[in-house]
Amino acid sequence: MNKDMIKPPVVLTLICLIVTAALVLTYQFTLPMIEASKAAAADASRREVLADATEFAELPMEEAITAGIGQVTAISEGKANGQTVGWVFTCSAKGYGGAVVVMCGIDTNGALTKVKVTEHSETPGLGSKVADPSYTDQFSGTDQAGAAQIDAISGVTYTSTAVKASIEAAYAAYEEMAKEEN
């Protein structure tokens, strides 16, 4: 075989190995910073949806709680002055473009304190409207029945349904917790 035929594939292979190693090292180096940033954003969202709470403690969950197409993936108990003021439910449901992640704050009386869409991959300008306060603020102060009565955004029914399914899942978890306390 000719040296000129062997040299290019060997050089390209070495370049690929070096670039791959550089990507792996960069990922490993930045992973703690990315995780810390995600944790800080989640904490800020919890404080936003349950503003009366001054501290949060994540409650253990053996598995996700599912209701309809929504599921609760995390529950945090919010406290102020040592007293429970409510819970924050991190929920997820499938929208048009993928998973829509929603945080729902529910106070000890069973009222939604606030709803916030924290992640989505919906169409910008259309499906992304569910993250706008003009839509999510409608849920504040309602209970489960009131939240079900809020209309979907015209043209964004899949994504609006995902938000409502997340709220439904949050209430299913809330009711399950109430049963366990009794």
Structure description:
- This protein has 182 residues and is α+β, with helices and mostly antiparallel strands.
- The chain has one domain.
- The chain is built from four helices and six strands, in the order H-E-E-E-E-E-E-H-H-H.
- The chain has helices at residues 3-49, 133-136, 144-148, 157-181; strands spanning 55-59, 65-67, 70-80, 83-94, 99-107, 112-119.
- Strands 1, 2, 3, 4, 5 and 6 form a six-stranded antiparallel sheet that branches.
Distance between the termini: 81 Å
What does the main sheet amount to? 6 strands, antiparallel
- Order of H and E elements: HEEEEEEHHH
Question: Radius of gyration, Cα only, in angstroms?
Answer: 22 Å
Shape: elongated
Mean pLDDT across all amino acids: 88
How many H/I helical runs?
4
* Content of β-strand: 25-35%
Return residue spans where pLDDT drops below 50 for at least 5 consecutive residues: none
* Beta strands, count: 6
Q: How many domains?
A: 1
- The assigned structural class equals alpha+beta
Question: Helix fraction?
Answer: 40-55%
Question: How is this fold's topology laid out?
Answer:
Layout: H1 3-49, E1 55-59, E2 65-67, E3 70-80, E4 83-94, E5 99-107, E6 112-119, H2 133-136, H3 144-148, H4 157-181
Antiparallel strand pairs: 1-3, 2-3, 3-4, 4-5, 5-6
